[in-house]
From TrEMBL:
SUPFAM superfamilies given in the database record: Cytochrome P450
Superkingdom of source: Eukaryota
Family assignment from sequence similarity: Belongs to the cytochrome P450 family.
Cofactor list: heme
Annotated Pfam families: p450
Gene it is expressed from: LOC102363927
GO molecular function terms listed in the Swiss-Prot or TrEMBL record: heme binding; iron ion binding; monooxygenase activity; oxidoreductase activity, acting on paired donors, with incorporation or reduction of molecular oxygen
Keyword tags: Heme, Iron, Membrane, Metal-binding, Monooxygenase, Oxidoreductase, Transmembrane, Transmembrane helix
Entry annotated with the keyword Membrane: yes
Originating species: Latimeria chalumnae
Protein name in the entry: Uncharacterized protein
Transmembrane residue ranges: 27-49
Amino acid sequence: LSPDQIESAESPGISEMSFPFSAAAAIPLYPLISGLSAFLLFCLTLQLIKSAFCWRSKVQKLDEEFPGPPRHWLLGHLREFQANEYGLAKFLEALPNHPYCNPVFFGPFPFFINLVHPDYVPMLSGLLAHVAPKMDKVYGFLRPWLGDGLLVANGNKWYRRRRLLTPSFHFDILKPYMKVYNTSAQIMLDKWEKLCQSGQSVELFEHVSLMTLDSLLKCAFSYNSNCQTRSQTEIPYIKAVYDVSHLVTNRLIFVPHHSDFLFSFSPSGFRFRKALSVLHTFTRSVIQKRKESLAHLGQPCHSKLSRCLESMSGRKYLDFLDMLLATKDDGGNGLTDEEIENEVDTFMFEGHDTTASGISWILYNLAKHPEHQDKCREEIQEVLQGRQEVEWDDLPKLEFTTMCIKESLRTHPPVTMTWRTLTKNVELPDGRTIPEGTHVSIGIFAVHHHPAVWEEPEVSQ
Ligand code: HEM
């Protein structure tokens, strides 16, 4: 091409090149955006249809392999799954038709498989913690309160802490505290004596909770709170425990609140944070007081626990909190302040609430069965021989009373369910397989009332 030709060839070229841009600027954006939106909507609809088919075939497979009690097409078993007598009764109603295990649906989705037969429980409870870690949906709701304390922790965290804290679960650890239990119980009985004189009815659970908290604080944390005799406003801890437990249970049942975001902006989330602040303030003050007393007694201990306890407090036993402060793993690492706080929160809650529930139900059952109550009283009077206080060596002699306590724990267990998530396929005794990723629970209440074990499960035996 000659330079002239190049020039004449370039100019239309340049103008052609620039044409599309100016033309695009001339096209209104609206049809482009609406076209794109329609396409996106189409893709989304396809995806939804695919997910719906996937979900349907998954549910059909689950229904075939693990048939369960009838459910609402949209709500699933949410109407039946309630944290009260009604909810527990519904579990028992399902037992004759589904005696081994059954899925529980939250909304249209299966949420967990509930194991209800005693033969199926060892399968789950025998699994190692890393094969069946605690289900994050449930236990994670407690994390803002209990952190990674033993009840909530999973994996290596759990193993490490469990190893450090196993001595605190030894039965003999309770031995030196008989005096504390006797004194705490006497304070409660004195209060009841006065209340009964005025003819008032008494809400037992509140009083028993204060009594178990009083004992726990003295035994585990060397903390004399006088919580039984002080007014409720001075010890708001019990009410805060009640509020948090209630809010966590409701959160489990109200599926939108499974989202941390939605829960934290809801009124329940607000109440939850308020109660947490009460709980954490209380535990921090208990830890702080103990640290201050230990500082008066001597330096923090880095020797073996047994020597440490004697030098710290001159006693032959170590309080749980002292052990938390002094304990070291093989690498010589102790617990951080946050870990100590988590364990104090955990033991404070687990230690007083479960026992308060257990004792309240025992009293209820003894009231319902005066003939058993009389027999317990006779047995205790015979063993105590006029003494006012129960001693450690008396306990094995109280055979009938122990049977009544155990029977009440069977009919009214303080913890009614536990939850795990399977990280592997697990085979059931009947050959069926629960796939990896499934949430599984042990239905403690249902197992305790299973007609395969008890002819008349509702009758106290
Ligand atoms: C009648 C009284 C009690 C009952 C019925 C009871 C029941 C239970 C149950 C069923 C679990 C398993 C929870 C799960 O895995 O989801 C558990 C765990 C636990 N309990 Fe208790 N408990 C009682 C008393 C206590 C006391 C007095 C303490 C402490 C002072 C305590 C501390 C704990 C702790 C720390 C865990 C977590 C253990 C771990 O995961 O390694 N419990 N309890």
